[in-house]
Structures are given as C-alpha cells and as structure tokens.
Amino acid sequence: MKVLLIGYGSIGKRHYEILSKMPQVQAVDLVTKQTIKDVICYKNLQDVDNISQYDYFIIASETNKHFEQLKFLEENVKNKLIFCEKPLFEIKKDLKIINNKVFVGYVLRFHPLLEKLQEFLIDEHIIYINVKCGQYLPSWRPNIDYRSCYSSKKDKGGGVLLDLSHEIDYVQWLSGKINEIKSYQVKISDLEITSDDLTILIGKTNKNILVNISIDYISKITHRKIFIETIEHTYELDFISTKLIKKNKFGLEEIYTFNNLERNYMFEKMHLDIFEEQKNICNYKEALEVMQTISSIQEQNK
Question: Could you tell me if 271 and 81 are in contact, meaning their C-beta atoms sit under 8 angstroms apart?
Fold first, then answer.
C-alpha cells in the first residue's frame, strides 16, 4: 500500500510516524512546503506525479483546507481510501462522495474504555448523557505560543467547537443525532484569540436521549469526562485517569481501567480499522452529521 500524506504539522508527523512502521504500508510520500530528507515531497497536491499510484490518502492539513483537498481527490482518483483529520470542514459544506471511501479521524472511538462503554450500552436504555471537557489552551502545546497556532484563529478553522468536536462525534455515535439544540458559542476569557473558547449545548437526540455537552479552552484543571444515565446503571468514563465506573441501582460498582495507554495506540487501531473491517471508524455520513450539529450551533451564535 502506498500512502500520500497531505500536511506535515504535528498531527501529520504523528500519522507519518505510525504509518511508516505498519507492515501494510510500503511507502509514505508527503505534500508539504517543507523539505524532508529521504522522503518524496510535493509542494502542492496538484503537483503530485501519477496521483493514482497511491492507495491511501491522509488529509492532515489545516481545517480550512480540507474541503478543497478532499474535492480535488474525489475528482482525480477512484476507488481509493481517504482519511481526513477531524473536523471535516470549518463550516457545513456540500460535497458528494461517490468515487472513493472517506473516513474522518475521530480517534477517541478507539479508546479501549469508550469501546467497552459502547458494548455495555448496546442492551441499555439510555436516558441522559452529560459530557464535560476542558483544558487551558496555552498548556495544550507547551513548546508553541498558543497565539500562533491554528486553534486560536477563527479564520483557520480553529476554536473549541471544532477542536473538541470529538465530544459531539462520540455522543452521536453512542446515542444518535442531536436535535432540538440550544447553545452558547462564545469567546469569554482573556486569551488572545479570535476563536471561541467555550461552547455549551443542550439537546435531545433522535432516540429521545437528553444530552448536555460543555467544552472549553479555559479550564486550568484538565478534564475529559462522560456521564451516562440509563434505567439500570450510571456510567462514568474519565479519559484523563483512564477509568470507567459502572454502578447499578443497588450500589454495586464495577471499575475498569486501562493503564499505560501508549501514545499512538488509538491511531494505530484507527488506521487498521480502515484497512480491514471499517467497523468503528467515523464514516463520511457520520462526519457530515457532526458538521450538521456544529452548523446548528454556529447558526445560533452568529
């Protein structure tokens, strides 16, 4: 399998590191303005020689470039696997995918405890989901001035709603499309950014499940938790401490942990799922549904 990786920032470098070591991959070429020693590099996607030689395409560029790059691939290659980093676009856009299979990088679907939670919920009647996720933006990338990264820039597709759309994706994966949305999308802190640093939404899914999601760039105490209430149980999944608690009506509690979660474990599983079963990976239709939810929030907060 030959891979073309578009974009070589921090997330692009991670994909390169992982894919280069996978036995299914024979070569990884790059589309980047950088010059990388001993690697074939193209300055632009349009400059790629014989683009059909590649089997797997990775779009790991800034969010505001995703649409044009995905459109170019859809028009110029056929029967290929295309992976696009999340979120799909910076705003809702129409692009029909007919010629290829497209997947989107909501990697938390491959967290071992979220997978276990999803299995538990198959036979459960969910009634309420509460999600809270936050981290102080200047501490995200310690070696980079937060004011210069794309997250801080609205026109680059930054902002907490897009950055942390993982939460919207996995909630919809577990409980259905969120409808009847009421939301706030604001810049409320003293951070020197043009993007939103707090988004709160309350809604109901098409399976009649109430949902509450709060995501932010402002919390000095990093947290990422999901609480799920079913008729029989309460579940609490803490992504930071990698602990899942399941407790029933009678106080019986079960605790599941996953120690020493390796840095690239979920990314490796995600690419393998695309190569093989395509079971848990976010497909194009699901990614568009995430964009529809994002669009509803953006429209409410213009």
Answer: no
Q: What is the pTM of this model?
A: 0.93
State the CB neighbour count (10 A cutoff) for residue 187. Answer: 17
* CB contact at 8 A, 260 and 58: no
Assess whether pLDDT exceeds 90 at residue 141: no
- Alpha helices, DSSP H, located in 107-151: 112-121
Residue 278: pLDDT above 90? yes
Cα→Cα distances 53→4, 78, 109, 183, 272, Å: 9, 11, 30, 45, 20
pLDDT at 157: 80
The answer to whether the beta carbons of residues 175 and 209 sit under 8 Å apart is: yes
Q: What does the pLDDT look like over 39-52, one tens digit per residue?
A: 999 999 999 989 99
What pLDDT score was predicted for residue 12? Answer: 96
- What's the fold here for domain 2-104? Rossmann fold (3.40.50)
Q: Find the Cα–Cα–Cα–Cα dihedral 97, 118, 175, 162, rounded to 10°.
A: -60
Q: Is the dihedral of CA 219, 224, 227, 233 positive or negative?
A: negative
At 51 the pLDDT is 97
Assigned CATH topology for domain 108-261 = Dihydrodipicolinate Reductase; domain 2 (3.30.360)
Sheet holding 282-283, edge to edge: 41-42, 27-31, 2-6, 56-59, 81-84, 101-104, 282-283
* Residue 148 CB neighbour total at 10 angstroms: 10
φ and ψ of 162, to 5 deg? -80, -45
| Residue length of the chain | 302
Q: Give residue for tokens 């568009």.
A: 288
**The pLDDT of residue 150 is above 80:** no
Distance CA 21, CA 14 (A): 11
The domain segmentation of the chain, as residue ranges, is: 2-104, 108-261
Tokens of 21: 């070591």
Q: Per residue in 75-99, pLDDT tens?
A: 999 999 999 999 999 989 999 999 9
